[in-house]
Design a protein that fits this description.
Radius of gyration: 12 Å
Number of strands: 4
Order of helices and strands: EHHEEE
CATH class: Alpha Beta
CATH architecture: 3-Layer(aba) Sandwich
Strand content: 35-45%
């Protein structure tokens, strides 16, 4: 897996099935996170496979990272 081919972008509804799978693997409250989809940035491998996601809540001029998941730890 070539890191240079990763694309970082805002999560979309099309990413939801993959995100739910990752959240469930990590025992995160996926029902709550599903409602917060617009707060997530995803990394995909260039083929549409989501390899990681980061939840960021923006409040005025500060950001709070609230969730992170990765398909593979390496």
């Amino acid at each position: 897996m070539d890191i240079a081919s990763f694309k970082i972008r805002r999560a979309t509804v099309d990413d939801l099935p993959q995100l739910i799978e990752l959240w469930q693997i990590e025992n995160l409250p996926w029902q709550e996170l599903e409602r917060r989809l617009t707060e997530f940035q995803v990394a995909d491998d260039g083929t549409g496979q989501v390899v990681g996601a980061l939840g960021i809540q923006i409040a005025v001029r500060q950001a709070n990272i609230h969730s992170e998941v990765f398909r593979r730890a390496d």
